[in-house]
Amino acid sequence: MTAAPLVTVIGIGNPYRRDDGAAAAVLQRLATQWSADPRVRLVELDGESVRLVQAWEGSRHVWIVDAVRSGRPAGSIHEVDAAHLADIDDTGKRLGGGHLMGLSEAVDLAGALDLLPTDLRILGIEGVDFDNGVGLSADVDAGVDAAVAFLSLALRDTLA
Amino acid sequence: MTHEHRARRFEVDALARVEGEGGLIVEIHEGALTDVRLRIFEPPRFFEGFLRGRMYTEPADITARICGICPVAYQMSACQAIEHALGVQVDDEIRTLRSLLYCGEWIESHALHIHLLHAPDFLGYPNGIALAADHRAEVERGLRLKKIGNRIVEVVGGRAVHPVNVKVGGFYSAPSPVSMHELATELRWALEASLEIVRWVATFPMPEHELPDHTTLVALRHPTEYPMLGERLVSTGGLDIDPSQWRNHFAEEHVEHSTALHGRMLVGGDYMVGPLARFALNSDHLAPHAAAIAAEVGLTAAERNPFRSIVVRAVETVHACEVALAIAEGYTPPARSFVPVEPRAGVGCGWTEAPRGMLFHRYEIDAEGRIVTAQIVPPTSQNQPSIEHDLMHLVEHSLHLDDAALEHLCEQAVRNYDPCISCATHFLDMRVIRT
């Protein structure tokens, strides 16, 4: 039986909702560096909570990338420990497409079933346009590059 | 406390959601129900426009993005409609693989809805997480079953979410015998587990309720199979049509309170699609274990209590496991994974049974293979009028309940239909406004 990868990076979103496709773009760009590394798993999901829990199964370190909407400048990067997810909930439904509730539920469900990884962190990319359509806003596209650089450093640290 | 002499208004705020957004308003004045409005904002309208001018090869991948829960349904209906337009007939072996892929989606979708979205309503929990705390073994069993559904979609469809292996004419590649052998092993457990799930949900306390008399049940029908990939559309009113006749009998119309089009029958009256309708019109074609367990728990084709749809979903899960197991056990790779397809001008219609009900696609294609027009009719918009009327019927007979109990009953009743909005969440921010 093949061992689970040490790190799973999950991208949530819908490329047909413009900036909601930010996470999918992050995964595509990360794949050029990391898809061949057996210690890393890259997974694109839609935010459904059970799929989230099952996608990170076996990994000790999990990053979840998603588009967020908090009023900060477009393309800004937010890093949140899953332990503080409830604080974000209180500020409103910020995530494009409503994934936050799926993510929050996933964390709660995983906790109830003892399926939480050792380290679960969320990387949000501030979006501005969540209408139907394809293509990222220019600032968000730059934010995707920043997120890829950030995650690549984090992956190297974890795997060192 | 009585409520006969004051106005009550229940409102569920709009919910952000990838595959659907919506809300629910129930208004009661002077002790009498005055209005029920289910507000749904659906993405298919955008996709219909987005598809115009694109090649016939693209809808299978693009429409899979409409719904994260049932991408296979969108892919299968799209392929069927485009193949109809282009005069393509797929091989039996390809059709069998499509059935297997569809089984995966039914297992995944039904397992999620039963365990985390609907069971909490019946057992008195606010959500699936609270249910998991007290019924851990049942929830873990359900999630393992869901994972097997995911695995089927991954093996046949190329990946578990938004499958990429589907194309007009078949599949880009066929699964390996090794992967199918592994699936069969998992499905033997799944079949046994699904039978236990039917017995579990059959013990749930069921509200006494029946659909309004005028509701017509509508589902696909196949000569020998329980219909995932059905051929004709039939109804409890005697309808029996092929896909190209759909527009002669059904239409979609705008209503003020929803961006989703409401489905209606041209002859008038509500109609309902989904598990209860499928079972009523096709229970004679269930696989043997599914038929036996349905009989064991007293489910018959005459069932009209929409709350019992959770039992029907469980029986359909048994059926999907049984069919998938037979396909996996008897698998040999097909002679070819797809049939050649040449573009030509034409119009094609197709339909399949998504977990929530019949999903209709229609495409007009030009001589170069570009899409001129697209029409996508999802089950949730078809059911929207019947959900509203079912809720009116239910509330009229439940006005004696206090506000909290009535709200709970309404939410539970909406989830009987597993619409996109409630498959995502346990209705956030529901509140009562007294005026």
UniProtKB/TrEMBL annotation, chain A:
Belongs to the peptidase A31 family. InterPro entries: Pept_HybD-like_dom_sf (IPR023430), Peptidase_A31 (IPR000671). PANTHER family: HYDROGENASE 1 MATURATION PROTEASE, HYDROGENASE 2 MATURATION PROTEASE. Keywords: Aspartyl protease, Hydrolase, Protease. It comes from freshwater metagenome. SUPFAM superfamilies: HybD-like (SSF53163). Transmembrane segments: none annotated. This is Unannotated protein. One of its GO terms (molecular function) is aspartic-type endopeptidase activity. Pfam families: HycI.
Automatic annotation (TrEMBL), chain B:
GO terms for molecular function: ferredoxin hydrogenase activity; nickel cation binding. The keyword tRNA processing does not apply. Keywords: Oxidoreductase. InterPro entries: Ni-dep_hyd_lsu, Ni-dep_hyd_lsu_Ni_BS, NiFe-Hase_large. This is Unannotated protein. It comes from freshwater metagenome. The lineage of its organism: unclassified sequences, metagenomes, ecological metagenomes.
